[in-house]
Amino acid sequence: MRTDDGLIIAASGQIVTESLLDRAQIYAKEIELLNAVGLNLATAVRSTVSDRWLENKVQLGDRASIAQENLNTFWQALKAKAEKLQRRSRRAMKNQRIEQALGRPVTRVILDPEENVILNVGELITHRAVSQAETSGVLNILLSSVYSKEPQISDKELRASEHGTAALVHHGNGRSQLESKSIL
Predict the structure, then answer these.
(1) DSSP code per residue over 61-103
(2) What is the pLDDT of residues 40-87, one digit of tens each?
(3) What does the angle CA 40 – CA 46 – CA 48 come to, to the nearest 5 degrees?
(4) Handedness of CA 61, 67, 70, 72 (dihedral sign)
């Protein structure tokens, strides 16, 4: 196939490539090229549209696959975050229940799986009791056995017979250092 000036656009038996199509278009020889390869304009247009449709379909499938992967990744991250928040929430609720139980009496005997008494009825819940109950797997039993009513405490009962380890230092008169200074 030649131009009007005699330049060769395509030789017989040559494979039609994009650059060959571009040269034929430059010299307005597209129809001659189609005829040379045994196609007519309608068949070429149909073929081009079909090829583009297939390309778009493949690209759409690729994009859908990428979108699905992104969605799966997002979903996994969201699930992990939700599980982490649930664990944190459960831990916070458990700690709050323990804090509310410390120093309060129990309403029933708390036994470990070997039938050893951790706390007896009326005994105060301590850090050690919580630790033993947790180790023995009976922490929920302990926390559900807390006496939660506010006790009626008389003025006499407000003064314990022995001092706590974190109490202020007492002088021989039974008053703390702070009380002694505030009275004088």
Answers:
(1) HHHHHHHHHHHHHHHHHHHHHHHHHHHHHHHHHHHHHHHHHTT
(2) 555 655 566 666 777 777 888 888 888 889 888 989 999 999 999 999
(3) 100
(4) negative
CA distance 107 to 124: 10
Distances (CA, A) of 140 to 98, 102, 130, 136: 10, 14, 10, 11
CA distance linking residue 2 with residue 169, whole number of Å: 115
Of residues 91, 92, 102, the one with CA closest to residue 127:
102
The tokens for 121 are: 């009825």
Range in 43-47, 118-122, 141-145 the model is least confident about: 43-47
Q: Please, what sign has the CA dihedral across residues 57, 25, 33, 44?
A: positive
How many CB atoms neighbour CB 58 within 10 A?
A: 10
Domain boundaries, given as residue ranges, for the chain = 102-150
Which amino acid, 181? K
Q: Which residues pair with 170 in a beta bridge?
A: 176
Q: Are 106 and 147 in contact (CB under 8 A)?
A: yes
- Entry pTM: 0.48
